[in-house]
Amino acid sequence: MKSLSSAVLLSLSFAASACATVAVSSPSNGETVGSPVLYTATATTTTCSKGVASIGVYVDSQLLYSVNGTALNTSLSLTPGLHKTVVEEWDYCGGATFVPLTITVASMPGVFVASPANNSTVSAPANYVATATTSCSRGVASMGVYVNDQLAVTQSGAKLNAQVSMGAGAQKTVVEEWDNCGGAAFMPVNVTVQQTGTRLSDLQASKGWNSWGQGPPSYVDCSPSPCNGYQFSHTLNVTSPSLSGNATQFTLGGKSGTAPWGDVLFSLPIIGQSSSQNLPDTGHTLMPSIHTFIYDADFYVTNASVTQVLEFDINMYMNGAGMIWGTQCNNLGGRTWDIWDNVNAKWVSAGISCDLINKGWNHITIQAQRESGNELLYQSITLNGVTANINKTFAPFSVPGNWWGVTVNYQMDGNSRQNDNTTYLDNFTLTYW
Question: Is the pLDDT of residue 18 over 70?
Answer without folding.
Answer: no
